[in-house]
C-alpha cells in the first residue's frame, strides 16, 4: 500500500466522496429522527415562541433557540438536508484551514480523511442535533478569523454561536485565545470584540430568562454506576462521539515523533492538553479534541509508513490494519446511530399518542421530548435548565414509580393533572424487577387505570378519574 495516493490531485475529491457516503447512510436507513434533538427543534421551529406550553406543562423556552430558528422556513425538509449541507461546507472549510497550516499534501489529505471518518464528525453532521450548527459556525468562524479579508465576518457568528450551544462557544473561544496568544497576536482586538459580543448577548439573554423565571435551576439527576473517564472519552468504550481507539494510537505515535518540536508548536500541544482535560467535564470538547488528534494521527501514520521496514508486505499489512481500524470506528458510529432510539416501535407509539386529545402525560424524563412532539404536556423531560421545579418533579416521579401506595399515586397524578402514563421496555428493565412492583402493580390491579395502547413492549395507560 502506498500513501502517495494522498498526493494525487484527485485525493481530496476521493475523500470527499467517502465522506458523502458515510453521512448519507444514517439519513437513508434511519431518517432524520435520531435521539431527541430533532424532535425538539422541529417542534419549536413549527410554532416558534419563547414560551413552551408543553414542556413541564408550560415554561420559558430557555433552549438554544438559534437551532430552531434556522429550521423555521421548512422544518421537515431542513431538518433532513441541513446537516448534510453543513457537513459538505465544513469539509471544504477544513480543507482550506488545513492548507494554511500543513504544506505536506500527504499529511493534509490524511488529516482530512481521518477527520471526515471520525465518530465526532459523523455524529455532528449525520442528523440535526445541538452540535450541528455550533460546530459549523466554529469551523466557519475560525476560517474567517484566519482570512484577513473576511475576518470581521466573525462578529455575526460571535452573536449566534452562544445561542447554538454555549459549551461549544466556550471551547471555540478557548481555542481562539490560544491561537491568538501564541500565533496571531495581531488579531487580539478582533478576538476581544467577538468575545465581548458573545458574552454580553448571552448575559442579557440569560438575565432576561432569570428575570422571567425568578430562579436559576440546572438540576442533574444522580448518575448510576461507576464513572469511568475512558468510557466518556473513547468512542469504542461507549462515548457518543468520542475518540476512535486507532486515532488515539496513531496520534500517540505522531506525538512521539514530533515531541522535539513541542516548544516551537506550543499552541498545538497545549490545545490538545486543555481539551483533553476539558472533556472530563464538558463532553462537547471532544469534537475539538477529535479534530486536533486527527492531524497528529495522520502524522503518526506517515511516520510509521516512512520507517524502513525489512518486509514491504508486512509494512503494507500493518498500514492496512490501521486504516481499517479507522474505518471500523466510522462504521460502528453509523450502526450506533441507526440502532439508536427512537426505534420503529417508539415512533409508532408517538404517532398513536398524537391522535389522542391533548393532555398531560407522565413517563421517564428521556421520553418527555417525544411526548411534547406528539402534542401533549410532559411532567418532566431532560431539558432541566431553567425548568419549573425539576428536582421536586423528579422526586415525585420516583415516588410514583417505586411505591405500591394508591393514595400516594393518586395524589401525584392529581397534582400534575396527569391523564396518560407511558411505560416502555427500557423503563421496565431499569426501574422494576417484576410486574408486581410499584406503579406496575397499581396499574394492573386497581380499577383506576386501563390500557389504551399495548404494542411491542410499549404501554399507554389512561387515568380513569370517574371512579
Strand content: 5-15%
Q: Topology as H/E string?
A: HHEEHHHHHHHHHHHHHHEHEHHEHHEE
How many domains, in number, for the residues? 2
Radius of gyration: 25 Å
Low-confidence stretches: none
Structural class, from secondary structure content? Answer: mainly alpha
Q: N-to-C terminal Cα separation, in Å?
A: 76 Å
State the total count of DSSP E strands.
7
Quaternary structure type: single chain
Please tell me the overall pLDDT: 91
Walk across the major sheet and give the strand order.
4-3-5-7-6
Bin the helical content: 55-70%
Shape: globular
Number of helices: 21
> Biggest β-sheet: count, sense, barrel?
5 strands, mixed
Characterise the protein shown here:
With 467 residues, this protein is mainly alpha-helical. It has two domains: 3-339, no CATH class; 344-463, Rossmann fold, CATH 3.40.50. The chain has helices at 11-29, 37-46, 66-69, 75-101, 105-116, 119-126, 132-146, 154-164, 166-182, 188-213, 229-233, 245-258, 266-278, 285-306, 312-339, 344-354, 368-373, 390-402, 406-415, 425-431, 438-445, and strands spanning 51-52, 59-60, 360-362, 377-378, 420-423, 449-455, 458-463. Strand 6 and strand 7 (458-463) form a beta hairpin. The mean pLDDT is 91.
Amino acid at each position: 500500500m502506498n500513501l502517495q495516493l494522498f498526493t494525487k490531485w484527485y485525493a481530496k475529491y476521493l475523500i470527499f466522496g467517502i465522506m458523502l457516503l458515510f453521512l448519507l447512510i444514517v439519513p437513508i436507513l434511519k431518517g432524520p429522527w435520531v435521539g431527541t434533538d430533532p424532535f425538539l427543534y422541529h417542534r419549536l421551529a413549527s410554532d416558534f415562541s419563547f414560551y413552551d406550553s408543553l414542556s413541564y406543562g408550560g415554561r420559558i423556552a430557555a433552549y438554544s433557540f438559534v437551532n430552531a430558528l434556522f429550521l423555521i422556513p421548512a422544518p421537515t425538509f431542513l431538518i433532513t438536508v441541513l446537516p448534510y449541507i453543513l457537513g459538505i461546507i465544513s469539509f471544504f472549510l477544513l480543507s482550506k484551514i488545513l492548507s494554511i497550516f500543513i504544506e505536506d499534501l500527504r499529511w493534509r489529505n490524511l488529516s482530512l480523511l481521518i477527520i471526515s471518518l471520525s465518530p465526532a464528525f459523523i455524529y455532528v453532521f449525520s442528523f440535526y442535533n445541538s452540535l450541528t450548527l455550533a460546530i459549523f459556525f466554529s469551523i466557519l468562524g475560525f476560517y474567517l478569523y484566519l482570512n484577513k479579508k473576511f475576518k470581521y465576518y466573525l462578529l455575526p457568528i460571535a452573536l449566534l454561536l452562544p445561542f447554538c450551544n454555549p459549551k461549544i462557544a466556550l471551547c471555540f473561544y478557548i481555542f481562539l485565545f490560544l491561537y491568538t496568544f501564541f500565533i496571531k497576536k495581531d488579531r487580539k482586538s478582533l478576538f476581544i470584540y467577538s468575545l465581548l459580543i458573545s458574552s454580553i448577548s448571552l448575559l442579557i439573554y440569560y438575565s432576561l430568562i432569570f428575570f422571567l423565571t425568578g430562579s436559576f435551576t440546572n438540576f442533574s439527576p444522580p448518575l448510576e454506576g461507576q464513572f469511568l473517564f475512558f468510557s466518556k472519552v473513547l468512542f469504542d468504550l461507549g462515548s457518543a462521539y468520542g475518540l476512535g481507539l486507532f486515532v488515539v494510537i496513531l496520534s500517540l505515535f505522531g506525538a512521539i515523533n514530533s515531541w522535539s518540536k513541542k516548544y516551537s508548536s506550543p499552541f498545538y500541544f497545549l490545545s490538545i492538553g486543555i481539551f483533553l482535560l476539558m472533556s472530563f467535564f464538558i463532553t462537547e470538547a471532544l469534537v475539538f479534541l477529535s479534530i486536533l488528534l486527527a492531524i497528529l494521527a495522520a502524522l503518526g501514520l506517515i511516520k510509521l509508513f516512512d520507517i524502513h521496514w525489512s518486509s514491504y508486505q508486512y509494512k503494507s499489512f500493518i498500514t492496512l490494519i490501521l486504516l481499517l481500524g479507522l474505518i471500523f470506528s466510522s462504521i460502528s458510529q453509523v450502526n450506533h446511530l441507526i440502532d439508536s432510539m427512537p426505534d420503529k416501535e417508539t415512533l409508532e407509539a408517538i404517532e398513536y399518542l398524537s391522535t389522542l386529545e391533548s393532555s398531560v402525560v407522565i413517563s421517564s424524563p428521556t421520553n418527555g421530548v417525544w411526548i411534547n412532539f406528539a402534542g401533549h404536556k410532559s411532567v418532566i423531560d431532560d431539558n432541566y435548565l431553567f425548568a419549573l421545579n425539576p428536582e421536586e418533579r423528579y422526586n415525585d416521579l420516583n415516588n410514583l414509580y417505586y411505591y405500591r401506595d394508591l393514595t400516594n399515586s393518586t395524589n401525584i397524578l392529581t397534582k400534575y393533572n396527569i391523564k396518560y402514563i407511558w411505560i416502555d421496555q427500557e423503563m421496565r428493565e431499569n426501574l422494576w424487577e417484576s410486574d408486581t412492583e410499584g406503579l406496575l402493580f397499581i396499574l394492573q390491579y386497581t380499577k383506576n387505570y386501563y390500557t389504551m395502547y399495548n404494542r411491542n413492549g410499549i404501554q399507554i395507560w389512561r387515568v380513569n378519574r370517574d371512579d
